[in-house]
Amino acid sequence: MKAAVVVFPGSNRERDVARALRLSGAEVTIVWHTETELPAGTDLAVLPGGFSYGDYLRCGAIAGRAHAMDAVRAHAARGGLVLGICNGFQILCESGLLPGVLMRNVNRRFICHRQTLRVERTDTAFTRAYARHQVIDVCVAHGEGNYFADPETLARIEGEGRVAFRYCDAAGGLTVEANRNGSLNAIAGIYSEARNVLGLMPHPENFVEGLVGGTDGRGLFESLAKAA
Amino acid sequence: MKARVTVTLKTGVLDPQGKAIEGALRSLGITGIAGVRQGKFFEVEVDAADEAAAEATVKAACDRLLANTVVENYRVEIAR
């Protein structure tokens, strides 16, 4: 598995995601946003978390139009894997690689806490190491994670089974309290139509080692490592 | 030529910032305000031959960057 982590001015989680990928056996290259091509043989392009361009205009709006995103778009069109975490998810939505938009959290606060998620399906390159409807314990840290799409788009996403993760309580219940940012249908992450692009707000890369609190994020990177 | 662009949230899209401002106005004792929606305003200097060309350029800028048309509407005015 060859992974390319694309870094923009203001990205700040690239080293954590690179570490999580390497722990699962991936070979990782860091790519600056001005590059017009991904390294030859890239299997997975990763857009890490952070605050690209200081969240100016809209979160992910400026990064979504960077040169490197043309390369990421071409990679996705060839069926290549793309993972966007937190700001990376916002960038994927802004670049048109995923539908919808991440709005300001409904409680208007930056939220930063442990969060349980329900894994919606396990037949994708990102989630094979999990069990269906498994509840995983990871983290969230964002001010704009409130997933929104127009009713038609939302119906299409649900109809095509493109929800990857939903915010849930410890027992897997989709409660209002568990969905703290106010996302429609408790959506924490979605796939592209071909399921080769995944965007999610939570940070699985935070929980890959017991020393820092948990290992439930590891399944995502292990799934990816086995995917190519 | 100068263009003025106003970007606003579409009807029905929740605006937590607008709601917070509404609450702050109420706490200031300013009554008679039924609702606040927050948007963005851009002043754009356009190098164009005529108004139609300027408008086309600014609309392209709105569609491709200034507005996210999933949740936002925009209005372009070319200053005369």
TrEMBL record, chain A:
Single biological process term from Gene Ontology: 'de novo' IMP biosynthetic process
Taxonomy, superkingdom: Bacteria
Keyword Amino-acid biosynthesis: no
EC number: 6.3.5.3, 3.5.1.2
Keywords noted in UniProt: ATP-binding, Cytoplasm, Glutamine amidotransferase, Hydrolase, Ligase, Nucleotide-binding, Purine biosynthesis
Catalytic activity: N(2)-formyl-N(1)-(5-phospho-beta-D-ribosyl)glycinamide + L-glutamine + ATP + H2O = 2-formamido-N(1)-(5-O-phospho-beta-D-ribosyl)acetamidine + L-glutamate + ADP + phosphate + H(+); L-glutamine + H2O = L-glutamate + NH4(+)
Matches recorded under CDD domains: GATase1_FGAR_AT (cd01740)
Any one GO MF annotation of this record: glutaminase activity
Chain coiled-coil ranges: none
Catalytic-site annotation from UniProt: 86 (nucleophile), 203, 205
Subcellular location: Cytoplasm
SMART domains in the cross-refs: GATase_5 (SM01211)
PROSITE patterns (alphabetical): GATASE_TYPE_1
Pathway of action: Purine metabolism; IMP biosynthesis via de novo pathway; 5-amino-1-(5-phospho-D-ribosyl)imidazole from N(2)-formyl-N(1)-(5-phospho-D-ribosyl)glycinamide: step 1/2
SUPFAM superfamilies, alphabetized: Class I glutamine amidotransferase-like
Primary localization class, coarse: cytoplasm
Entry GO CC: cytoplasm
Protein role: Part of the phosphoribosylformylglycinamidine synthase complex involved in the purines biosynthetic pathway. Catalyzes the ATP-dependent conversion of formylglycinamide ribonucleotide (FGAR) and glutamine to yield formylglycinamidine ribonucleotide (FGAM) and glutamate. The FGAM synthase complex is composed of three subunits. PurQ produces an ammonia molecule by converting glutamine to glutamate. PurL transfers the ammonia molecule to FGAR to form FGAM in an ATP-dependent manner.
Self-association and partners: Part of the FGAM synthase complex composed of 1 PurL, 1 PurQ and 2 PurS subunits.
The protein, known as: Phosphoribosylformylglycinamidine synthase subunit PurQ
UniProt organism field: Methylobacterium platani
Lineage: Bacteria, Pseudomonadati, Pseudomonadota, Alphaproteobacteria, Hyphomicrobiales
TrEMBL record, chain B:
Alphabetical UniProt keywords: ATP-binding, Cytoplasm, Ligase, Nucleotide-binding, Purine biosynthesis
One cellular component (GO) term of this entry: cytoplasm
Catalysed conversion reaction: N(2)-formyl-N(1)-(5-phospho-beta-D-ribosyl)glycinamide + L-glutamine + ATP + H2O = 2-formamido-N(1)-(5-O-phospho-beta-D-ribosyl)acetamidine + L-glutamate + ADP + phosphate + H(+)
MF term (GO), any: ATP binding
One Pfam family here: PurS
Signal peptide positions on this chain: none
Entry keyword Cytoplasm: yes
Main localization of the protein described in the UniProt heading: cytoplasm
Domain of life where this protein originates: Bacteria
InterPro entries assigned to the protein according to its UniProt record, in alphabetical order: PurS (IPR003850), PurS-like_sf (IPR036604)
Similarity section: Belongs to the PurS family.
Role this protein plays: Part of the phosphoribosylformylglycinamidine synthase complex involved in the purines biosynthetic pathway. Catalyzes the ATP-dependent conversion of formylglycinamide ribonucleotide (FGAR) and glutamine to yield formylglycinamidine ribonucleotide (FGAM) and glutamate. The FGAM synthase complex is composed of three subunits. PurQ produces an ammonia molecule by converting glutamine to glutamate. PurL transfers the ammonia molecule to FGAR to form FGAM in an ATP-dependent manner.
Record note on quaternary structure: Part of the FGAM synthase complex composed of 1 PurL, 1 PurQ and 2 PurS subunits.
The protein's name in its UniProt record: Phosphoribosylformylglycinamidine synthase subunit PurS
Source organism of the structure: Methylobacterium platani
